[in-house]
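#random but structural
TW: two for the price of one
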Amino acid sequence: MKTLTIDLKSVFLGAGLMGGLLLMANKPAPQAVQQPVDEVRRYQAVTGERGVTILDTKTGRFIVDPYGFQNPRWTKGDFEEIHARQTK
C-alpha cells in the first residue's frame, strides 16, 4: 500500500484555487429593468348605498350592480358615451 502525504503548501493552493473557481462561477445575474408601477391600479371597486360599482380607470368603462334585487344585475356603462349623450 502506498501512503499519501500532502504538504501544507499544496492544501492552501488547492483551497485557494477552488475558492477562486467558486467565486467566478457564482456571478450575480444582471438586474432586469423593472417597469414603473402606477400608483392607481387599473380596476377600482366602490360600494355605496345604491350598489356596487367596478371601474376600469384606463378605459373609463364600468359595471354597476344596484342593490334591491335578489339576483345580481350587472349593468355595463362607459363614461364617454354617457358624457356624449348629456351634451347633445
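TW: number two ↓
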Amino acid sequence: MSLRESPFSSGLARALHTLGWALIFPCFWFLDRLIAVCISTSLERRQRREEKCYCYLYPLKVFFGSVLFLVLFLISTPVALLGFLLWAPLQVTRRPFAYLQHVETQSRNTVWEEAGKLSLGFVTANLCLLPDSLARFNNLGHTQQRAATVGQSIVQGEGRPFNRCNQNTPLYVSTSFPASMDIVCLLEVFDKRAAAKLADALRPFFGHVLCDVGVYACQLCDVCCSFKFFNSGLFLASRHPVLKAQYHCFPNSRGEDALAAKGLLSVKVQIGLHKEKKKMVGFFNCTHLHPVNLNSIRYDQLDMVTKWIEEFQRVNRQEDEMVVFDVLCGDFNFDNCSPDDHLEQNHSLFNDYTDPCRAGPGREKPWVIGTLLQQPTLYEENVNTPDNLKMTLEDEEQRKMRLAPPVSFDAIPFVYPETGEPWVGRRIDYLLYRESTLTHHLRTNQIPSTTRLLCIDCSFSPRVGEGFLILHLGFFYKSG
C-alpha cells in the first residue's frame, strides 16, 4: 500500500495551512524581490556592459525597485503576521513531506527475465533552487525558470537509451542528463514553487514524487527544537511507488544551516517485479550534511545517518521481499582527499556502503573528477556554459585552476597530488550502494549462477540547464 498524498491527515488542517501560507506569501515574495533587485549575476552584469544605454539606467532600476518593494513589504507585513499565527501551530501536525502520485509509468524491466537483464539507474544533483534573492549570492538567478529548464532536461534525457559504461573507464563527462533513471534525487530544492514546477515537468516519467521534505517553525516535541525557516531541500522523484518513507532532522546544525531542516530521507520503493514469489523492493536514502565541520558536526551526523537507516530497514523489511538495491546519496560537504576531512573519510559508514569513486580513505580512483568549483571561477567563461565546463573538467590543467583544491589540516602544508597520481580536486557529492545487498541478490535468490554485475557506471554532467553538477550511478545486471 502506497503513502497518503497529503502531509495532513485532516482536510480542515490542510485548508487552514493553505490559507495561512497564502497570507504569508505576498510579504515573503516582496522581501525576496527587494533583495534580488539589488544583486546581479555575472550574466546580468555582462549584458549591461554590452548594452551601454541600459547600464546607465540600472541604478535607477535598483533605487525605484527597492523603494517599491520595500513599501509593498511593509504594507503586507501585518497580513503576513496573521497568516503566521495560523500557519506556525499547524506545523506540529504536518507530516514532514508531501507525496505526489501520478499515473503509473511502465517499467523498462517488465520483461527482464525474458530479456536476461535488469537495469537500475540513480542520479543525484545539487540545484541551488533557493528563493531568487538567496540564489543570487551563488551567481544564480531566475529560480523558477531554472527549475523549469532542469525539469525539461531530465525529461529530454528519458528519450535516450540506458547509458552503458565505457569498457576502459567507468567515467564519462556529458552535458546531457543521464537516460532512463529509476530514481532522481535533487538537493537544495528549497523553493516550494520551484519544487512544484519540477514535479509537473517530471510527471510523464516519474509518477511518484516526495517534495517539501522537512519540518518548519519550532518542533517542541522533536529534537529539531530551533526555528526552521526552510525545509531540508531534498526532492525525490521515482518511477516506482513509494511504500514507506521516513524523515529525520539533524539536531546539531549550527549557524545559517540551523535555519534549514536538513536531515535524512529514507524510502522503500516497490519495483513491481517478482522472482520466485518474492516482491522486488529497494531502499533509497538521501541527505545533506553540514557545510562547516565545527566540533565534528559532520561525523556525528554520519553516525545519525547510519543509525536511522538501520532502524528504518529493520522495521520495514519483510520476509516475502527481495531487496535489489540499497543506495545512499547526497551532498556530504567533505571530500576524500583533504587532510582536514580525515575524520569523516574513516567513518564506518564506508564499511557499510561502497563508494565507486573511492580507492580508500584519503585516496580517490584515478578517473575521478572533483565536484566543487572555486567560488571566484564561477563567473569565468570556461565554466559558465555546459559545453565549456565539460571541456574544463576533461582537461587536468584546467581543473587545477577551476576546481577547489584539497584543504590542509590546521594549515599544515602538504603535497597534492602524490607523485604519479592525477589531480582530482574536492568531490563532495556522493552516490553509494550497499555491496552486501547486491551480493545477496546475485547469489542466494535462485538467480542463475551465470548472472553477474556487468558494470557500475558513473558519470558527471555539468550544468544541465544552469548551475549544477550531476553524479550518476547505474547498475546493469545480465544473465546468461
